[in-house]
Amino acid sequence: MKILVTLKRIPNPDEPLKFTVGGLDYSSHKWVPNAFDEYAVEAALRLAEKVGAPDRLAEVIVLSICPQGQRQHLIQFLGMGADRAIVVDADEDALDTGTVAKAIAAVYKREGCDLLIAGKLSQDNEGNQIAQRVAGILGAPQACFAATVEWDRGQRALIVSREVDDGVEVKRIPLPAVVSVDLRIVLPTSVQNGATPANHAYKEGARLASLRGITLAKKKPFQVLSLGDLGLGGPANERAVAVKAPPARKAGQIVGSVDDLFDKLTKEAKVL
Amino acid sequence: MSKVLVVLETTASGLRSLSLPGITCGLQVARASGGELHLLILGAAPQAVAQAVAAAGYGAAAVHVLADPALEPFTAEAWADAIVHAARTLGATHIGGTATSSLRDALPRAAAILDAPLLPEVVAVKTGDTFTRPISAGRALLDAQASGSLIFFTARATEFEPPAVGAAVAVQTIASPGLNTRGAQVLSVKKTESARPALTEARIVVSGGRGMGKGENFQILEQLTDMLGGALGASRAATDAGMVPADLQVGQTGKIVAPDLYIAVAISGAIQHLAGMKGSKTIVAINKEKEAPIFQVADYGLVAKWEDALPRLIQLVRAHKSAT
Lengths: 272, 324
Ligand SMILES: Cc1cc2nc3c(=O)[nH]c(=O)nc-3n(C[C@H](O)[C@H](O)[C@H](O)COP(=O)(O)OP(=O)(O)OC[C@H]3O[C@@H](n4cnc5c(N)ncnc54)[C@H](O)[C@@H]3O)c2cc1C
Ligand SMILES: Nc1ncnc2c1ncn2[C@@H]1O[C@H](COP(=O)(O)O)[C@@H](O)[C@H]1O
Known about the structure:
The complex is a heterodimer.
Chain A: E1 2-6, E2 9-11, E3 19-20, E4 23-24, E5 31-33, H1 35-48, E6 59-66, H2 72-80, E7 84-89, H3 97-111, E8 115-119, H4 130-138, E9 142-152, E10 157-164, E11 167-174, E12 177-181, E13 191-192, H5 211-217, E14 222-225, E15 238-244, E16 253-255, H6 258-268
Parallel strand pairs in A: 1-6, 1-8, 6-7, 7-14, 8-12, 9-12, 9-13
Antiparallel strand pairs in A: 2-5, 3-4, 9-10, 10-11
Helix pairs in contact in A: 2-5, 3-4
Chain B: E1 2-8, E2 10-11, E3 14-15, H1 20-32, E4 35-43, H2 47-56, E5 62-67, H3 76-90, E6 94-98, H4 101-113, E7 118-122, E8 124-125, E9 130-135, E10 140-146, E11 151-155, E12 171-173, E13 185-191, E14 204-208, H5 218-228, E15 231-234, H6 236-240, E16 261-265, H7 271-274, E17 282-287, E18 300-303, H8 306-323
Parallel strand pairs in B: 1-4, 1-6, 4-5, 5-12, 6-11, 7-11, 14-15, 14-16, 16-17, 17-18
Antiparallel strand pairs in B: 2-3, 8-9, 9-10
Helix pairs in contact in B: 3-4, 5-8
């Protein structure tokens, strides 16, 4: 079993945005891993490992499309426990979403992967479409917005509960397949692989890379590909025309008591 | 001439009301690109709904039906293949619909099969190929331009009013190419049962956060919610802690809401939460910390513990409701 996990670097979402004329200036931003991708790696590692034993049920390969000098996030993921890394050397901000998806699908095929785990959303671009696109290109089944994943190893299938508008859908997909993960995939028992005891409670969230992990990470295989290697290139079919700040809300007021609040809501805002 | 195809969803009782904003966005795209709006209804036997939609017209040139047993229950696999087939049959130049969990799942898949760009979560239509959408948790608005002979979009429901009823149009049938779910199987769908209005459609939303402490404490919020005829919401911290079901989460990764009144109780106001409710007309925040960021977007802020504030608020609202 080979699991491919996609990782995007993003400008730190906790830093304020800097607007320029018609655009955004990220030059002083710290670049950090997209939170959903940290969750994706955590989910892949939970599928791959047998807690309490050295056995590994799957190889975990991390893939990022990013420019040179912006690869620190991959070391962190290797440090968490992924087996090796592949980089497609390109400035992803200059690519369109379709090309990013094609590059991921090409690596998936080249490596003969059984499963792609992507984040549901990149926190900066908020496309919410890469996993679906890759599944479409591959003609593979997909389970997006996953809150839990159970691996049926005997049947080579995944049973995924997906967060949908008014509840939860449980979907069974045969491998090879594509999954995108939502926030709750990192709750203590969200991932089941039939090897780690079902009642094993993981610590909530994505694991941290240990110091030893980081040292080992630097020795793990790290392959760099170009878009040309994957037979891709050509002009983008999306373009940013302008970026601006959303209209500001008018300043509010602090009220002194519940009675004041109620008064304002009935007489001033007239919403009750 | 452009041909804008909007994909609709149905429920047991007819057209899904959340599909309506997508029609309005589609109409705007059709106008901006000098073309026609077409509506597409998919399902196992959606003819009756199609007739009702065709009678309402909504400014469309035609309503198309593609029926196949594989389209129910919803899977992205069968739906994407159906959308691709309809797009090719009709020669669509634009394909879109409301950004629901189903269309967020199926439309990008269809777009990839047709090698077309998709602009997600559109909040405004600038021209036939340039749409505005929020990025970075709603902290910026991007005008993005797509090129090519086919452009996909999803519309953010809170930003488009439902369309007006128009002249009745004909229903046209697209023969199914023979669909399957590519091995995927829906085992169950657990809907959250609630007598309250849907979060995305309620006029009033009352949300609780981590500061509510535990699930039982949400009862007092539910009391206020029901008295106001509103919907209950929550922050991620409250849903992750299991205080309330996950589908009540409001925010960047949860529901996007824009009610007339949003009451945030014991919610700090992280940017990911604000992304889901900043568009509300009037925002009330009740939080015990006066430094809480939620106060920066609140029209009315009350620095208080919910334990102290809510019983009195409920008392006042009850008296007000029985007097009016
Ligand atoms: C990728 C990503 C996506 C996310 N998506 C979302 C999302 O969609 N929606 C979302 O909500 N969050 C989301 N988050 C999480 C978000 O960053 C915050 O962690 C979360 O919103 C915090 O929830 P909270 O305000 O309830 O909890 P806290 O931040 O812990 O705040 C609790 C508040 O309650 C107040 N309080 C405590 N006790 C009382 C009392 N007795 N009376 C009154 N006030 C009290 C405190 O002063 C505090 O302000 C996301 C995070 C990430 C990384
Ligand atoms: N440049 C990239 N490199 C690797 N993975 C990416 C890249 N961009 C997006 N992804 C993956 O696609 C997911 C969804 O991204 P998006 O569709 O842009 O919201 C992310 O969580 C990543 O897993």
